[in-house]
Design goal:
The protein is mainly alpha-helical. The chain has two domains: about 15-45; about 55-115, no CATH class. About 55% of the residues lie in helices and about 5% in strands. A hairpin with a 6-residue loop joins strand 1 and strand 2. Helix 2 (about 60-70) crosses helix 3 and helix 3 (about 70-80) runs antiparallel to helix 4. It comes from Limosilactobacillus antri DSM 16041.
Length: about 120
């Protein structure tokens, strides 16, 4: 009997999904959430979902590239910001750190030069 209740609960779980907006448990075939009224995204097989949506991509090496070649980091950020957001953010962050660091260094030496003159 325990096995039947386990199978029934598994079948019950397969008939429902959760709204990405409010988190309510809804019918698996629902197109609009009956609780909050938000349209639900269509089901996409795992093979058609970008790897970054699964959290499997995005490397700190893009930050390193963006740091040493900030123009490349900026271009990669602009190109990848929708298709590969983790890699795009890493490349953009590296470029941003490069620009902020060099601005601080230049400001420091400029201030030092003005004070000693």
């Amino acid at each position: 009997m325990d096995n039947q209740s386990t199978m029934a609960s598994q079948n019950d779980a397969r008939q429902f999904k959760f709204c990405q907006n409010c988190g309510a448990k809804i019918d698996a075939n629902a197109v609009i959430c009956p609780h909050c009224g938000v349209a639900l995204p269509a089901f996409t097989p795992a093979s058609s979902v970008p790897a970054t949506a699964n959290g499997k991509k995005g490397s700190y090496w893009w930050s390193v590239l963006g740091f040493f070649i900030p123009v490349a980091g900026l271009v990669l950020y602009i190109v990848w910001r929708t298709s590969e957001p983790k890699s795009a953010n890493a490349a953009g962050l590296g470029a941003l750190i490069h620009v902020v660091l060099w601005t601080a260094i230049i400001a420091f030496f400029f201030t030092l030069a003005v004070m000693t003159a």
